[in-house]
Amino acid sequence: MKKKTTIYDIAEKLNLTAATVSRALNNNPKISEKTRELVQATAIEMNYEQNTLARALKSGKSFNVGVIVPRMDSNFFASVIRGIEEELYPKGYHVIVCQTHDQEELETGNIMSLLNAQVDGILMSISNSKTKNKIFNSLSQKRVPLIFFDRKKDISGVSSVTIDDYNGSYLATKHLIEQGCKRIAHLSNDRSLEIFKNRYLGYKQAIIDHGLEFDEDLVIETFSKVAEGRKVAKQLLNLASPPDAIFSSSDFTALGAIQEIKEQGFKIPEDISVVGFSNEPFTRFMELSITSVDQSPIEMGRKAAKVFLEEVDAKDSKKNPQQIVLQPELIVRKSSLKTNLEAI
Amino acid sequence: MKKKTTIYDIAEKLNLTAATVSRALNNNPKISEKTRELVQATAIEMNYEQNTLARALKSGKSFNVGVIVPRMDSNFFASVIRGIEEELYPKGYHVIVCQTHDQEELETGNIMSLLNAQVDGILMSISNSKTKNKIFNSLSQKRVPLIFFDRKKDISGVSSVTIDDYNGSYLATKHLIEQGCKRIAHLSNDRSLEIFKNRYLGYKQAIIDHGLEFDEDLVIETFSKVAEGRKVAKQLLNLASPPDAIFSSSDFTALGAIQEIKEQGFKIPEDISVVGFSNEPFTRFMELSITSVDQSPIEMGRKAAKVFLEEVDAKDSKKNPQQIVLQPELIVRKSSLKTNLEAI
DNA sequence: TTGTAAGCGTTATCAA
DNA sequence: TTGATAACGCTTACAA
């Protein structure tokens, strides 16, 4: 194996010491311009590449950050990761992505794996399962910055970047009301997670603010799968007084609901309007495009990465945890737009 | 900061040396059973965690492998990554995922980044652009195993795990012929990539084998975007003698084609049948579900990871590059299944 | 401005 | 079976 060039090789060739070479390479001020240029030129000539492992061992940093997401094949999370990459690559960091598949064991396991891999920080969106705080405490003990995005937990001292789910939900529900809908059902999700709790609350408040009757029977807790959406829609359609609109906290359940509604012969949006959440690409591509709430995931990723950079630089000084909240945008499409407003 | 426990701490507490502790922890045979148990118990008690960085520095390995994919938000690549994870996590490796977004600069940049991060190997699916062989040569010079999956390049000494695209294509085309289609168009893609060349060739051969006329005008090269599918379908429908079926090398272009066909008032599959490739989840979820070719991505990932493990263990001994080819499966759905065969 | 030397946490080699 | 020591490649006081 062709040995890699080290700073010793450069030092030897130039009759200097490794220390000087190291300084020259790192643009340390305590060095002459001439030496610096000579060293840097020689480094290029000899194909020198820094051994990041050694630097990491010495500095205690790995220049890797871990990103933990429930899954990476959703457009939302993939886009957040993209945003994180955009911000972190230029700073010399690498991004290790792990998926939890919403399983608590995997979530805990991933955190431990990443810690073991010496990541300099963890950016994560927590899973549905109620991961114990214990593991997060061990993170702060080790002084590994933890930043939540999208799905957070309230842990003191931990920063987060989320969207205003409450407002997104409020906007979506208000839109349905303005389209003339009177009995709006809500497909909720594990409300021990803030995002789903807030989506529920925003929905509820919009109903109340507009003088409609809030009916708890129209709120169903399910989870983000197409098949679940079908199942739940079936339940709703069987009610004595079925809804004339469904606002889902997930695009996937919205899709399932749409399939079921159409199959039972109802028209969308005329009979029943549907709105989803997340603005997954398929909501745009469907024959019946789906109204949804966009969460600006790239922006979310970039913001989370910036917070990480601040915290990792802050070292031992007291942390000022930030709670950044982005504003969502309602994208109106066919599934809820009644062109003739006679329905009102 | 609470200092991490090192083997020195354990050694000190037990009046041993770090070397002995290291041996005990690594189940080195040259140690007494008693010491081993004592050390291991103490390690647990003191919350010892191995510093993988130091181990990496010493061994020259990082226990990280890099995975490069065009994008991670397609079900296909996400599933391959899942397969790789399943195989590699138990062996103590971590997986660093990078996306190229089909840009050559990013592809080259990612490889260099990963090398700089000291990955022990790279598993990749190459991008559409014609990445220069130079970068791959530098990989083999550094003795970093490179394994291609799905989208490969023929480089001597490099292993690959692919599916039999030729056969998948052949099956899909044959299926359309059996459904009574006579003029089958093919949406191709950059044929400098083997997968798309093979899908083209399988299609062509099936046409010829079944006595149909092969018409080069029915083959259109495009790229994997929904909007492209629409555009290309428009072209095809404008032909003097339009096709009665479209076999697309991508589910995304198939989807676009379907949108356009329906918009122009044709019926699917009666007037025009459509088959895609990759078995993305949306092909199943659409109101009009789409026939597609499944590529068993998880299996592909696992196989690729296994090849990596073999190569990384082989050390300096001569490599025996493997070319593993998996068999695809045709999943027939509504977009091509004519229930009444009167069309024949 | 440059050199010396210690140290980051391991593992491997040699000696005891 | 265990201990002492060097080495992996780099950074950084401290000394010159």
Automatic annotation (TrEMBL), chains A, B:
- The source's superkingdom equals Bacteria
What UniProt keywords are attached to this protein's entry?
DNA-binding, Transcription, Transcription regulation
Q: Which residues form the HTH lacI-type domain?
A: 5-59
Q: Which GO terms describe its molecular function?
A: DNA binding
- SMART domains on file: HTH_LACI
Pfam families of this UniProt entry? LacI, Peripla_BP_1
What the entry lists under InterPro entries is as follows: HTH_LacI, Lambda_DNA-bd_dom_sf, Peripla_BP/Lac1_sug-bd_dom, Peripla_BP_I
Gene3D superfamilies from the UniProt entry:
3.40.50.2300, lambda repressor-like DNA-binding domains
Coiled-coil ranges per the record? Answer: none
Known PANTHER family for this protein? HTH-TYPE TRANSCRIPTIONAL REGULATOR GALS (PTHR30146:SF109), LACI-RELATED TRANSCRIPTIONAL REPRESSOR (PTHR30146)
Record's protein name: LacI family DNA-binding transcriptional regulator
Source taxonomy lineage? Bacteria, Pseudomonadati, Bacteroidota, Flavobacteriia, Flavobacteriales
